[in-house]
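Thread: zinc ion complex, take 2
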Amino acid sequence: MTHNLAFITRLHACVAVAALVSGPALAHDATATHYRLFIGDHADGVVRMITLDEPEAHAEFAIDMTPALTVSASGETVFAVQGDAGKVAIIDTGVAFEDHGDHADMKLSDPVLLQSTIFGTKPAHVVEGSGTIAVFDDGSGDITLFGESALRGAEFAPQVIAAGAPHHGLAAPMGDYLVVSVPHEDPELPRVGLQVIDRSGAQIGETISCPGVHGQAQSARVFAFGCHDGIVLATPGEGGAAPVLTHLATDHLGEGNVSTLKGGVALQFFLGNFGSDAVVIIEPGSEEPFRKVDLPTRRVDFALDPAIARNGYILTEDGQLHVLNVLTGEITQSVTVTEPYSMDGHWRDPRPRLAVAGDHIAITDPLHGLVRLVSTTTLQEDRTIPIDGVPYTIVAVGGSGVDH
Ligand code: ZN
Ligand code: ZN
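Output below.
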């Protein structure tokens, strides 16, 4: 571990008091658990970092505008997407895991704003797959492709593919291919579908219909995309062949459609929104792949638990947090965690967002300037952490690893 900043030094003290466990690693090695939250401000161009074990150990990064935040699969990088500023700022989280076979080492360092920046006209969706990260630029239709390690290199020179006309699009890397959204010929009309292209931008096969395509997630190498009339699944082709696209209709579920998706980590499933007051559990390959779950009021945000694989967490506008058992499709517990945050008004109004950090659900409470930490097992609020400004978007990184 490096310890060149005050807060990392304090962190060391913390590691020392953590339980010593003898396991596959040497008996004198400490297992440390460490989580960091990165929080985008609703009013200003600021990303703030706090650590859960040492809330006073914090960092702040000045950027251009209120960001949307995406975290890389490794947890080493946070992308602060600033569409209207034509930029994606890139933060090294300072938390990295190194695979040592029977255990992982956790390496902690100071979070830093990297020199590498993605510039564009209006960058939006950041999608990672097969070790490649793709940033779609809505303003140009260009796709910027790179590997995570290239962000730390001396000169960041990503590949840029001109994929077509500008639109609010997305590109999902799958092996040597990309699944990309297809705009309507009339830019005023909704996106028409999805297609597979190779790394030179050439189309492979036919375009599949997926009206208004928006939202994507990956689970066990399969991507799902939301459409106005269902979802499209992209399954890796045999032996490195192009991915296979399949459309699954959701007409039978009633009014609503999927436009935001989260992918299961330990289980293969997706959780999607459906209309304003429901979610849908999606299981690829199942006879009835959709299970719609109605909510008491309109949905504010939702998240999956990477550790407790059966748990989804849904916050509704009445301030209630619900635990959804994705295996049974039942809401097993509901507690009030914030005051009501009405979904009336602009979609961008300050409302809470969720991230799961170990055994806590971290909930931004913008009107109170707080992050609330709610136990994933009891659903009780353990504590609150005051955050400067108006805390809004949030992502979590961290885990447990050996310190030796
Ligand atoms: Zn090790
Ligand atoms: Zn979008």
